[in-house]
Amino acid sequence: MTRLFQLQIARAIARRGVSCRPFKPHTTSMALTYKQLQKQIEQLQRQAESLRSKEVTGVVERIKVAIAHYGLTAAHLGLETPASSGKARRSTTAGKAKSSPAFADSHGNAWSGRGPRPGWLKEALASGRSLEEFRVDGSGVAASATASRSTKAGKVGKAAGKSKRAPSKVTYRDDAGHSWTGRGPKPGWLKAALDSGKTLQDFLK
């Protein structure tokens, strides 16, 4: 009975021209469409990256102009971290210490006053010098250098004073016109006269 019913249905479908072939989905057309979409997506991604790169370049250039114009720093932009700020302060402090030594001598040696004392300072202190002698004043000159210059100036002044002594009032002359002030070694003409039996009183004028 069942077999007969199936044959009747098949004959009816054949009379109406309906194919009894099994249904097959159009997988080929769907695969091509998917590939096309993927290709379009890749093209759009490349376009988006190119456009972003151009926009970033323009934004960076505008930021550089603004930074140069207003003198902005990392701290103004909120980009400075505590670690970097600490390093900056330490470098600034170190730079100040190097640029302005606290102690120096007349030979160009200097010490910032921080850390171990250098060898030249230890030797000076061991020889009896005091630390204050090497302290640099506001003009950047050590006290020892200032004292040294003062001492030299005093010596020069004394030497100048000696060179400006009043001329001697005692003068010795002979009949030939030779003279002697009475200071320094006796001249040859006077020695010869004294050897001949004369005395200094004979030439006192």
Quote the average pLDDT: 75
Return residue spans where pLDDT drops below 50 for at least 5 consecutive residues: none
Biggest sheet, open or closed, and with what strands and sense?
A: 2 strands, antiparallel
Main structural class: mainly alpha
> What radius of gyration results from the CA coordinates?
55 Å
Give helix % range.
55-70%
What is the total tally of β strands?
Answer: 4
Task: Please report the number of helical segments.
Answer: 6
Order of helices and strands: HHHEEHHEEH
Distance between the termini: 184 Å
Tell me, briefly, the overall form: rod-shaped
Report the portion of residues in β strands.
Answer: under 5%
Oligomer: single chain
Spatial strand sequence of the major β-sheet: 1-2
Please, could you describe this protein's structure?
This protein is mostly helical. Helices cover 56% and strands 4% of the residues. The protein has 6 helices and 4 strands. A hairpin with a 5-residue loop joins β3 (172-173) and β4 (179-180). The longest helix is centred in the first third of the chain and has 44 residues, at 27-70. 3% of the residues are buried. The model has no long low-confidence stretch (mean pLDDT 75).
